[in-house]
Amino acid sequence: MQNNQENQSALERRIDMSVPMADIEKEVEARLKRMARTVKMPGFRPGKVPMKIVSQTYGPQARSEAIGAAVERVFGDQIREQNLRIAGSPRIEPKEAANDAVLEFSAVFEIYPSIVLGELAGQKVERPVLGVGDAEVDKTIDVLRKQRTTFSETDREAREGDRVVIDFVGRKDGVEFEGGKADDFPFVIGAGAMLKDFEAAVLGLKAGESRTFDMSFPDDYHAAHLAGQAVQFDIAVKRIEEAQLPAIDADFARALGVEDGDVTKLREEVKANLEREVKRRIQAKIKEQVMEALLTVNPIEVPKALVEKESLQLAENAKRDLEMRGMNAKDIPVEAAWFADQAQRRVKLGLIMAEVVKSKELFAKPEQIRTLVEEMAQSYEDPSELVRWYYSQPERLAQAEAVVIEDNVVEWVVSQVEATDKDVSFDELMGNSAGA
Q1: Given this structure, which CATH class describes domain 124-134+252-430?
Q2: Which of 86, 98, 146, 188 is the most exposed place for a label (fewest CB within 10 A)?
Q3: Whole-number pLDDT of residue 431
Q4: Is 149-244 in the same CATH topology as 2-111?
């Protein structure tokens, strides 16, 4: 056997190899003999079929298998000899041999990049800081109350926060436009479902009253045929409903899972859950900065094969998500190419983090995994049940282990960079708009 290695690019390699045909013929003969022991054909007892007939019938199959095995063996020997880490599967290309005594071929493949970790000292990370007090608990309870809003009909004029039911007709240059008409249409004033100018026209009207008004759609309106266009609407208010927030009482507490209706217990549970959520969001924001720092100081090229594989996986995840939302994924084309940039980032981070874990020995310890699982279980009615669930299957525990390893990497990176604390507001951390 002979070989010759050629570098195609930073990660792509080509190895030219050859195998003596005599070796392949020996393997073909051995395979046919093994087949002859069990092959069945009409007119012959099992194992008694003449070799000539076996060769005529199964020769092409045996030869194909023998060549495949020889190529795989020779390629594997070369990879081990040169200590190469292969990414993806090799592409085997036949070559025209100089004589019939050898089979010549090339293997084209990619290798994993060699990563030398960059210096993190110049990078910066801001750690959000937020304490959970009565004000944050009050805001959260207010959100829970709004989620349980009920509406009752009123005969007063429409105000902010009311749910109104209206008929409307929209016209552009005196002609009704597509999507501009509806009957018995409900919406909450101020909830953002309708444009502000439209909502403003409803304010002050009572049930049974009508109004005609002019307005313009925003330049970036999602319906292109209406973007930036001046139109006129006729609206007729049919019903006005006033929002009723539930009182913070025993019934409210019981509705949220506090069996004895103790409002103090409700506040304690809300605070505990909020503290866990604040911690999770702070960790997520720190993690995001850490990942950017790792990518910045470790600019690496990644194998196309790994990016393609990750893109396909992301596309499959997107299809499953659509199906879980009740949509038929078959009717919605989801292309792997759409996820190429995201896949490349994920592959880069995966390789960089693996090197960090290995070189800095940041592997998950059993006690760390246990602590994480018990922490996640605290939000469940029976925490011990979730703990048992995780520990009953190695695959589930592996998910927790991966989280711990990621947390270890984040903690190590933060210790290497210029990390500063930054006070944040509750609404900023929670992603609420203007304290809404």
Answers
A1: mainly alpha
A2: 98
A3: 81
A4: no
pLDDT at residue 326 in the model: 78
Of 49, 107, 117, the C-alpha closest to 75 is: 107
- Rounded Cα–Cα distance for residues 240 and 153 (Å): 6
Cα torsion 275, 276, 278, 281 to 10°: value is 170
Tell me how far apart the alpha carbons of residues 416 and 124 are, in angstroms, rounded to a whole number: 9
Q: What is the pLDDT of residue 435?
A: 39
| Nearest-angstrom CA–CA distance, 409 and 352 | 10
Q: Which residues of 177-190 are buried (b: 16+ CB within 10 A; e: fewer)?
A: beebeeeeeebbbe
The maximal CA–CA distance of the chain, rounded, in angstroms, is 101
Q: Per-residue b/e over 354-379, b at no fewer than 16 CB within 10 Å? A: ebbbeeeebebeeebbbebbeebbee
| Beta-sheet strands, E only, within 220-264 | 230-244
pLDDT at 8: 57
Cα 180 from chain centroid? 37
DSSP H stretches of helix in 16-133:
21-38, 51-82
Asked if residue 305 lies in contact with residue 88, where contact means CB atoms within 8 angstroms, the answer is yes
pLDDT at 321: 87
Closest residue by Cα to residue 241 from 306, 164, 355: 164
Name the CATH superfamily, with its identifier, for domain 2-111.
Answer: Trigger factor ribosome-binding domain (3.30.70.1050)
The parts of the chain modelled with pLDDT lower than 70 are 1-9, 329, 432-436
Inter-CA distances, 145 with 116, 163, 255, 303, Å: 53, 16, 11, 51
Domain 149-244 has what CATH class?
Answer: alpha beta
Q: 62-90 burial by CB neighbour count: b if 16+ within 10 A, else e?
A: bbeebbeebbeebbeebbeeeebebbeeb
| Residue pLDDT, tens place only, 3-22 | 555 555 689 999 998 999 99
Q: Find out whether 169 and 233 touch, Cβ atoms under 8 Å.
A: yes
Instruction: Report the predicted TM-score, pTM, of the whole model to 2 decimal places.
Output: 0.72
Strands annotated E in 203-304:
210-216, 230-244
What does the domain layout of the chain look like in residue ranges? 2-111, 124-134+252-430, 149-244
pLDDT score at 433: 52
CB contact at 8 A, 417 and 125: yes
SS3 state of residue 388: helix
Residue 324, pLDDT score: 84
Q: Is the dihedral of CA 218, 223, 229, 233 positive or negative?
A: negative
